[in-house]
Amino acid sequence: MDSIATDNPFTADQERALIAFAGAAIPASSAYAVPGADDPLIAADILATARRYADAIGAALDREDRLAIARHGAKFVDLDAAAKKSQIERANQPRSSDDASDDAEDELDRARFSAHRTMLSIIAQCYYRDDRVMRSLDMEPRSPFPEGFEVEEGDWSLLEPVRRRGKVYRDAPR
Amino acid sequence: MPPVPMGKSGQTLAKGFNQLGWHWWPSDTAIATQQYDGRDRCINLGACGSGCAQGAKASTDITYWPHAVRAGVEVRTRCRVREITVNDEGMASGVAYYDEEGVERFQAAQVVIVACNGVGTPRLLLNSTSGKFPNGLANSSGLVGKNLMFHPYASIQGVFDEPMDGYKGPGVCIWSQEFYETDAERGFVRGYTYEINRGRGPVATALTGMFSGRIPRGEGHHEAYRRLFNRITGMVGICEDLPEEHNTVTLDPDLKDAHGIPAPKIDYTLSENSRRMLDHAVARGTEVLRAAGAVDIITEAPIGVGGWHLMGTARMGTDPQRSVVNEWGRAHDVRNLFIVDGSIFVTSAGVNPTRTIQALALYVADSMKKRLANLFD
Lengths: 174, 377
What we know:
The complex is a heterodimer of chains A (174) and B (377). Chain A has 174 residues and is mostly helical. Chain A has one domain (5-143). Helix content of chain A is 53%, strand content 0%. The longest helix of chain A has 25 residues, at 103-127. By secondary structure, chain B is α+β, with helices and mostly antiparallel strands. Chain B has three domains: 7-27 and 151-247 and 268-300, Cholesterol Oxidase, domain 2, CATH 3.30.410.40; 31-75, no CATH class; 78-139 and 313-374, FAD/NAD(P)-binding domain, CATH 3.50.50.60. Chain B is 24% helix and 19% strand. Chain B has seven helices and 13 strands. In chain B, the strands form four sheets. In chain B, strands 1-7-8-9-6-12 form a six-stranded antiparallel β-sheet, covered by helices on one side. Chain B has a three-stranded antiparallel β-sheet with strand order 2-3-4. In chain B, helix 1 crosses helix 6 (272-292). Chain B starts with 6 loop residues before the first helix and ends in a 7-residue tail after the last helix. Chains A and B meet through helix 4, helix 5 and helix 7 of A and helix 1, strand 1, helix 4 and helix 5 of B.
């Protein structure tokens, strides 16, 4: 997607945090020869796609930075891999009603949970449409149309037991 | 026309159903498997829910509309009707609407036919107040907007050691109505249909895995992902929600749309009957997936991303005090107003509603045609 600088609704800190979040969620793998979701091409796709949800995602990323500073004395982007993973996992645990002691805090947790799900959805969407990732999954890096795909017809004789059993529905009253 | 192919997923599940002696049946999925009426045949694109580039998947714009337009119907898109107007005799006289430029227009009419479904139809009727109809049009029964029904869906997905169809082919391959009818021993009335979902694409696999905890974020992501990719197939149980008057569509006292039209407000509580049905669907679905060879089961009930079919809010019936439209779709209170959408359902039925809506719309149209000489009597 082409863009100009003023199109970007994220601050530099939010951009770095989002890319760090993506890389922490889906890291590179040498075993499978795939990049992480913080790869420059994929990250650009993520940032462009996330613009539509900039308000919610921006607020969530700011909160991640505040939490990281409160717990570790550093912004999210500067945490080590284990601390990043722990913070992401925690954000994706919805608080149970038993835990809710403060309505405002509970509302913040729900907003954070919702924003994290949106971020993960965008990250997965952008990551798994990358040509390199698709090839690593033995997928052709192309859109389904116009070539389509082959799907085997299947063995329709499997229906014989169902036919032998007879109808399972009621006749409509006359 | 032949059904859509069973594929690996359909065959695997069919064998599971057969092992338990349960009903299953092929699916047409509203997809043309041969060239039909100017539409090309399905080539298994797989992204049916996002629109069919091939034109094989039926949708109104490529099925009914071309015929209607050729017959002289003018389709005005991007318009929003504010209200149905009435004359001194209490008959519908037309509609006030905003065109795509936001300009208010009036369209006079001899007959008004509403097809806005279970939220849009009551919203429009409740917004159509007048001296003769102070509580909304066609609402002498007080039932416009009441008895809202959805389809609570239970999702039961199995993980298999062998590859399934994954992202290839129409999303639904077979169905089962083994548990459609009431059986008092189950602890609930009515029942549900199983819609067998063929598989998941790469993104849906990642999200299913990450949200269910099967695929970790960070270390271990790729190994876990590859254990699920192309190896998930399963089903949703489409539960028959029943009419309850406390489930409603009303007008929001504050919220309005871009044209200043009061927005709908929805109040809905999942019934105990539907809750039990969902639990039953999860338990039996797990059984059939295990019988088919699943090594892991992922469930969610009710799901949040589907089943939001909108029904029941302008119900059909012969008693004007207990229904909004009569037995052929005409409003009891307004003799030239007809409704042809999911709002006229009296129960949701445990199956997706589009075909029933189409059948009712065709039936109402035929009923009108047969009565042209005395349509307003």
